[in-house]
Amino acid sequence: MTTRKRSLEDFFDALRRNQRANRTNFPQWYAIIERVDDCFVRVGKNLVNPEPPMTGVLLLRCQYAFKTAAGMALAGQIVEVFPILRSVLEYAGYCLLMYETPALQGVFILRHAGKPEMATQKNEFTIKAVRGAITRHDPSVADIYDDNYQRAIDFGAHPNPHGTFSAMSLDEDKGLDAITALAISKDPKIVEHALKCTAQAGLTALHVLQYVFKEKFELLGIRQDMDALANTGML
């Protein structure tokens, strides 16, 4: 097998070309993703002494993960985008857990201090705990969070056939001897699915974060913009 000297650079060039093309091919989805990102940006720029402080850090990490997912979805990285969408949801969920129980900030920070600390952190920061926290605010949002989280798992956040096969071509005449694993998908339906899932995960994360930064969301009009996004009928 011959390795091209510009293999990685060529790959990056292909990603950028796809991102530009898909902004044109899917203008409605790009506009929605941009609106979701704007909500993240506004609250992130207006953080003032959040308590506990790590909630602000987790919100920003959630925002940056969302931007990364948007770039990957636009590029056609339709399997690899889903582990990032899982991170988007987990950052928001962990932020809520920490806000409700400020002592968890120390548990989070000390995760790598030793095996007991790591075990404690793993026991406290679970998706079950996140769901419980969201349910205390709105059970319907907890259900939506669950749906988005499971979708992220099913489409690539954990290696599985469903995710793997979504970016694979098969010559039916040759069977398993002619399988191609695609780095980048150009199938419009599959790319659109990734874009929609990205927008949905971002909006779901914002719904969770509003419980932590409620006053900011109200004062900055983010809550109103979230409602408008939900009412587009596309999410």
What's the gist of this structure?
With 235 residues, this protein is an all-alpha fold. 72% of the residues lie in helices and 3% in strands. It has a two-stranded antiparallel sheet.
Number of helices: 12
Poorly predicted parts? none
The separation of the N and C termini measures: 44 Å
The tally of beta strands, per DSSP, is 2
Tell me the overall shape. globular
User: Could you give the order of the helices and strands?
Assistant: HHHHHHHHHEEHHH
As a percent range, the share of strand residues is: under 5%
List the domain count as a whole number. 1
Helix fraction bin? over 70%
Question: Which structural class best describes the helix and strand composition?
Answer: mainly alpha
Average pLDDT works out at: 94
| C-alpha-based Rg, rounded | 19 Å
Taking strands numbered 1, 2, ... along the chain, how are they ordered across the largest sheet? 1-2
Largest sheet: 2 strands, antiparallel
